[in-house]
Amino acid sequence: MALLVVFVSILLLVLLVAYFRLNTFIAFLIVCLFMGLALNMVRVPAERMSIAEITQSIQTGIGKTLGSLVIIIVFGSMLGKLVAESGAAQRIANGLMHVFGRKYVQWSLMLTGFIVGIPLFYNIGFVLMVPLIFTVAARTKLPTVYLGIPMLASLSVTHGYLPPHPSPTALVGTFHANMGLTLIYGLIVAVPAIILAGPVFTRFLKHYTQEPAQLFTVAPMPEDQLPSMGTSIVAALLPVLLLAGTSLLKLCAAPGTFLWQISNWLGDPVIVMLLAVLNGAYVLGLRRGLPVKKVMGIMEDAIRDVSVIILIIGGSGALTQMLLDSKVSQVITDSLQGMHMNPLVLAWSIAALIRVSVGSATVAGLTTAGIVAPLVAGTSVHPSLMVLATGAGSLMFSHVNDGGFWMFKEYFNLSVKDTFKTWSVMETIVSVVGLIGCLILNLFI
């Protein structure tokens, strides 16, 4: 009966978010309360939770999940906003197009999306990068869909796979994975996913020649107002360089030595993101003559942009804690272990099912983690791969219940049918290839 309650609770979450359009954070809280009360109805008195214990579990879950995570998410949003608003993203795109030329312009946009997408929150990245695609399309006379899909595939993959994005960062904590190793393995899995969903897939999309919606065209910044190429790339990639570099350094240093302690400190995600934001504020703002008030204003806007996602992550933490405190997580673990399914495939499948039902990649990933996280301790599967498999599943088949689907449709001026054939297929490719990449990596680590 406990498993039936969990199933009904997840179904209720899907209905509240997808059908009734209720705020996702409120939906999580309602589902947590429903789950706690419903479990009390099917259990003996000794196993029941009091109302006070149920509400305390919700508060504990929100606090435990956010904790230092909120710092990383906010700093990541600040850095991404600085990269976009300063013109660093435009400089990276222009520089890569100059290097690759018109023949490989797709690859330049794909790399731009990947570099800029690491610190840039997905919805912000979408809105700020799409005008860049339109500018390049007008300059090269190539179809916007043909040019846009590779860049948006990069943005999608970084959003689903790689820290410091909110969902992967939260999954790292839930699965007790190492953030640096998750980033390294994520880069290995991300590259083939982006290439197959980008340049390879778009070879079949050259006939989509619709003009983009004029409402969304934005004039690029003058060339002389852009930061240098080196400054732009270092500012955008500093979190990656620090996380990956310190993780590799720790593998070479003996535990307890000075070098190990320094790399351990510099590799702490909070320190990494603080250093990246301070560096971005200086080199992309203050050093270029922007007043402090302007730079701080950009950062404050970033906080507003990411506030909703913070609440969603907190709500998912409440659900996870409810599963733990009610002892249902152990029941789920015992049942899933009896299925003899690869944990990576299981995590991907559950995340994909919730993603298709709810539409939100973040909700899909975090809800799945709460269900399958207890399995990791009893298996030999690397926690970082569980993060990546869950993230890959959370990107599966974006359709009409996902805001990204409608943004792509409107920006690129497509019909619903053509949006399914382009955007939805692209998201499916990055999801499936991500799972395959995790399964291959699992053979070696």
From TrEMBL:
<protein>
    <submittedName>
        <fullName>Gluconate transporter</fullName>
    </submittedName>
</protein>
<feature type="transmembrane region" description="Helical">
    <location>
        <begin position="65"/>
        <end position="84"/>
    </location>
</feature>
<keyword id="KW-0812">Transmembrane</keyword>
<keyword id="KW-0472">Membrane</keyword>
<dbReference type="GO" id="GO:0015128">
    <property type="term" value="F:gluconate transmembrane transporter activity"/>
</dbReference>
<dbReference type="Pfam" id="PF02447">
    <property type="entry name" value="GntP_permease"/>
</dbReference>
<comment type="similarity">
    <text>Belongs to the GntP permease family.</text>
</comment>
<feature type="transmembrane region" description="Helical">
    <location>
        <begin position="344"/>
        <end position="373"/>
    </location>
</feature>
<feature type="transmembrane region" description="Helical">
    <location>
        <begin position="182"/>
        <end position="205"/>
    </location>
</feature>
<feature type="transmembrane region" description="Helical">
    <location>
        <begin position="265"/>
        <end position="285"/>
    </location>
</feature>
<keyword id="KW-1003">Cell membrane</keyword>
<feature type="transmembrane region" description="Helical">
    <location>
        <begin position="26"/>
        <end position="44"/>
    </location>
</feature>
<keyword id="KW-0813">Transport</keyword>
<dbReference type="InterPro" id="IPR003474">
    <property type="entry name" value="Glcn_transporter"/>
</dbReference>
<feature type="transmembrane region" description="Helical">
    <location>
        <begin position="104"/>
        <end position="137"/>
    </location>
</feature>
<feature type="transmembrane region" description="Helical">
    <location>
        <begin position="144"/>
        <end position="162"/>
    </location>
</feature>
<feature type="transmembrane region" description="Helical">
    <location>
        <begin position="428"/>
        <end position="444"/>
    </location>
</feature>
<dbReference type="GO" id="GO:0005886">
    <property type="term" value="C:plasma membrane"/>
</dbReference>
<keyword id="KW-1133">Transmembrane helix</keyword>
<feature type="transmembrane region" description="Helical">
    <location>
        <begin position="306"/>
        <end position="324"/>
    </location>
</feature>
